[in-house]
Structure formats: C-alpha cells, structure tokens
Amino acid sequence: MSVESSFGGRRATLRVALCVLLIFVCCVGNGQQPESQLSGRVLRADHGLPIEGATISLERAGSIQHNLPLQTATTDSQGRYRFVDSIADGTYFIDVIADGYVSESFSRDGTLDGKFQPITASTRLDVDFRLQRESLIRGVITSANAETGIPVAAVRKEKQKDGSIRLRVQNAAKTDEMGHFSLTKLQADTYFICVNGPNGFSASADAEGWRETWFGGASADDATPIPLKTGEARNDLRINVERELRYRVIVWPSGPEDSPRPDRYGLSIKGRTHSYKTQPDGSYVIPGIPPGHYTLGAIAWAADSQYVGEGETTFDVTNEDVVLHLRVGGLGEIEGVVKSETDVVPSGIMIGIESEHAAQGADVDLSGHFQFGRVLPGGYTFKFLKNPDGLKLRGVRCGSANVSKDEPLRVGDRERITDCELVVGR
Predict the structure, then answer these.
(1) What is the pTM of this model?
(2) Nearest-CA neighbor of 216 among 139, 272, 293?
(3) Which site from 219, 308, 356, 367 is most exposed, i.e. has the minimal number of CB atoms within 10 Å?
C-alpha cells in the first residue's frame, strides 16, 4: 500500500468520526432539557388564565443572616416556569410576585411550618400558584409642613384566642414628595390605615417625629374601616398629621445576682416596635419614644446564648428623657404532678408553660411528675403540648391558688415552686 493511500484512508476515517460526533452533539442539543427540580404554573385565581412575567423566587432559610443570593425563574406566555440551574441542598421559601396581583408564598399544608420546603438533588417538585387580583388603597397626607417619606400602613385587626385584638400590618408604603401614598397588593379584606404606626411600626426615631394617626379616628379603636373586594381600589383618602416630641429611654440593667455575668441584655417595650443601642458606659438607649405609659422587659443573656435572667418595670414618658435602673432576677423552677380523674395518668403527656417572654415544655413521667428548670421570672400559664387519647386540662393549682390566663402563676427571682397540680380528664 502506498503512503498516499494510507493517508487518504485515515482522512476518510477522520471524516466519518467527525460526522458521527456532530450527529451526537445535534441529537443532545435538540433533545429534552434535564428535568427541573422545581417547576409549575402561575394562573389567575378567578378564571385560571396564565400569568406571564410572574417571578418565582427561592429564598434559602437563613439567607438574610448569611447574605445568600436568591434563585429566580420567570413565567412564559403559558404561565409556566422552571428552575434550569441546579438547586443546592437546603430548606427554602418559595414565593411568587406579579404586577397587579397579591403576592403568595407556597406552603405544603397551609401552615407556617409548611412554608419550609426541603429541596435536594433528587427533588422533583411541581408547584402551581393561583393569584388573586390585588386591591389598592391610595391617598394623600396633609400637614403644615408635610415632607416625603412619611410611613403609612394598611392594618388588619385579628382577634386572638384570649379575646384580645392584634394589629397586623399587611402592607406599608411611604409618601412621595407631594404627600401621596399607594398601598398595593392587598387581598380582599377590611383594613384600617395608620400613619407612622401602629405602635412604632416603621416610625422614625427622630426627636421630633410624626404623631401616630389613624384614618377616621384618634386611635385604632375609633378608626374608619375600609372594606375592599378583590381587585377594588380606594383612591380618596386624606389624612392630616402633626409633629410630636419624642424622648430617649436610658436603661441601666443589672443582675441577676449569684450568676455568671451577662454578656448582654435584650430590651423590649411591650406593645411597641423600637430599636436600642448599647453605650460604652454599659447603658442602653431606646430612642424616639412618645409620651405615654409603658412596660419595659429585659432578658439577660450569657456569652453562650443561654438566658440567665429576666426583669420588668413600668415607667411614664412625659416631657423629658427617662432614666431607668432595672434589676434582672435569676432563674427559677416549677415542679408538680399530673393527676387524672380516672386515677390513671396516660403515658406520652407533654405539658408546656408560657409567659410573654418565654415558653418551654416538659414530659410527664410514668408517676405523673414533671419539672421545668431555667424558668425566667414572670407570670406563667399551663397548656398541653401532647395530649394523647383526647385528654383535656381540667384545672391547674399551685399552692393554694388556681392558675388561669387571668391569674397566671407568678415566678419570682430564683424562686422554686414545687407544689403544682394539674388535673386532666376526657
């Protein structure tokens, strides 16, 4: 065989190999894309038509603390979306937003826990959303010296189990340079409009700030309700606001005694949203508090993030800064026994204690005894955390006093209570 014939045969073989390779690449390129870990559709809730341009986002649990980026996908003309890039193993929140519609978060079962969605490399999740058309509330803030950036909130009143009313902010906005505001993405409901609140929500900490003002009334109790249907807009609100003086609350916490020195203190004024700063001299400053009567709570924390004590005091703000010296009490204990109306205490019972600042649970042993350690000072109520066989908590008594929501068990500084009795029945 000649050298030329040999080279010619090799060239022919190379051409065949290249053709096979190109055919393989084309087949792969024109084939189906890899199956997505998360995909689905976004549709209108009223008639089921697709929503184009909706954005679905994956927020990893703890992403705010760890500054993790969001992964997003956008719906096409058929309302379909799919996450093309692989999703790292973890737990995620799945949210969707679209212009003109109420935003929504995915939950497996409609509960808060159901919003925590685990995703791994083997996950194949199909999540569809049906979005309601948004309702809107627009208006204008008027005052003698109105300025931009005044916060306005749409608030719902929610009745709690104990009969109290909770003010829950559904959406908030700030005024533009003309004093106009627009509250969007509201679902059909009844709302109350609050400027610079409620209870300090979004309020500035300036020494001279805007007074908390409700549309139609002097307080939340007197405010005018605004009922909205799906897709309805209310555009005619006018609210006049005034300035008010605010003051600093300077707190010097101490204690608890006979315990490791606290690493820091956590402060909270009951029923009010606020911030605070630690000063080099060891004091804490809460700015921007308007005149009124308040209750301040403080929890002492050790360096290992374990709480070591709690304290509480009441105070009034009138026309100047307030200085408070707050002593924090140490941890106590609660012990007792569970008794049954049938003289037989079923196994598997877990009970809990709860106060405004703390809660914990304890198992009931075979003899009916339970114990709570590291109990912060305060007022506590009891409840079932696990109640097999449909048991009900008939009554709670500690010492000579009955315990209820109206009359909680008071635990003092390093106090040990050992005579609680819980009666259960069917």
Answers:
(1) 0.77
(2) 139
(3) 367
